[in-house]
Amino acid sequence: MAEGVVDKSPPRDALFSASPSLVLLEVDGRPASGFVATEQGHLVTSLHAVAGAREIHAVMADGTRTEVAQVVAMDDRRDLAVLRLPVPELAPPLDLSAVCLPGEGDTVYVLRATASPAPEVRSQEVRAVQVLGDWLTLLELTRTLPDDFSGGPVLDLRGGVVGVATAALANGRSLGLVIPTRYLLPLLRGSGSLPLSALETPRRRASRVRQVPRHPLSLLEGANTDALESIATTLGHAINAGAPAYNRGDVDGCYRLYARTAEKLIATCEAFPGAQRALRDGLSRCAGLQDSDDRAWALRDAFDGLLDVIGRWLQVRPPSPRPSPKSSPSSTGIPVVPTAKRYLN
């Protein structure tokens, strides 16, 4: 091979070694992928692939089929689930030794368990390394993945396991993603044993239908740029604090923060009755809900609807005229409309 040329052919030895660890999951009759990660029989997959499952069977590379009835750990934020095989020795674990995370343009190999010993392998390139905050850095692939690839391991050029594949949908767009292995390791240290019914809550959250109102621009009649930017900033700060609390499991704390923010804005934005009404509507929805989870989302819907109409208003309305301390000799006299600010997470 010529100097400087990178060999992107699949690491055959690594694929051969990984194959016995792959598991074909039958989740209520639907296929999904998984792999054995420890000698104790910890079975890794994507949470969305098993959420709400009533029955899960695991098919090993040698054809052995067994029922899976125990949940060890779940990570709703990162779409990871760890199940437990009834017999640890059914399959050898994959080596999850630390490897460097691939970068943009690097090649990775996504493995899907099949009914035969040989897995299906798809070569992909990393489109981008997405940093979503302190809680998650992930890889976005150049092409989408079929649903049944979710939960399979992803290898780098040397055959190291860099993460777990997941077929995702974001803003109406299908994505192929890789959740890095480092987020999986803490889950594998767990010794919990929950029934499959524990998978019901993630299913309910995943199937939630958002009810974000689409307000007309007339809602903000009489508003001015500075006041709307202040409202949007307050809402943005609440979401940036409440969303991580929700993801940590503090659902009630998230709801209470959102409720306090809505009440504060209602009390301070009397000049904008439309904005007050939008927030009151959100609080009224909460009054008819018993669950803090539902209440938090009701207020998040109200916030997102108000942020949306504020964003549209700022795009179509010119900024309020402000006196310039000194005119520039080269000024053309044409007002410059700044780029609309973005407030949504």
How would you summarize what this structure contains?
The protein is α+β, with helices and mostly antiparallel strands and 345 residues long. Helices cover 30% and strands 24% of the residues.
Q: Gyration radius, to the nearest Å?
A: 25 Å
> What profile does the largest beta sheet have?
8 strands, antiparallel
Q: In terms of structural class, how would the helical and strand content be classed?
A: alpha+beta
Share of helix, binned: 25-40%
Oligomerization category of the chains in this entry: single chain
> What is the first-to-last residue Cα distance?
47 Å
E-strand count = 14
How many domains, as an integer? 2
Q: Beta-strand percentage?
A: 15-25%
Give the strand order, joined by hyphens, for the main sheet: 5-4-1-2-3-7-6-14
Mean pLDDT over the residues: 83
Number of helices: 8
Query: Uncertain segments of ≥5 residues (pLDDT<50)?
Result: 1-6, 321-345
CATH topology of the largest domain: Thrombin, subunit H
Task: Look at the structure and give the CATH class of the largest domain.
Answer: Mainly Beta
Break the fold down into its secondary structure elements and pairings:
Blueprint: H1 12-18, E1 22-27, E2 30-36, E3 42-46, H2 47-50, E4 56-60, E5 65-68, E6 70-75, E7 80-84, E8 107-112, E9 120-131, E10 137-141, E11 153-155, E12 161-170, E13 173-180, H3 185-188, E14 194-195, H4 200-206, H5 225-247, H6 251-268, H7 273-287, H8 292-316
Antiparallel strand pairs: 1-2, 1-4, 2-3, 3-7, 4-5, 6-7, 6-14, 8-9, 8-11, 9-10, 10-13, 11-12, 12-13
Helix pairs in contact: 5-6, 5-8, 6-7, 6-8, 7-8
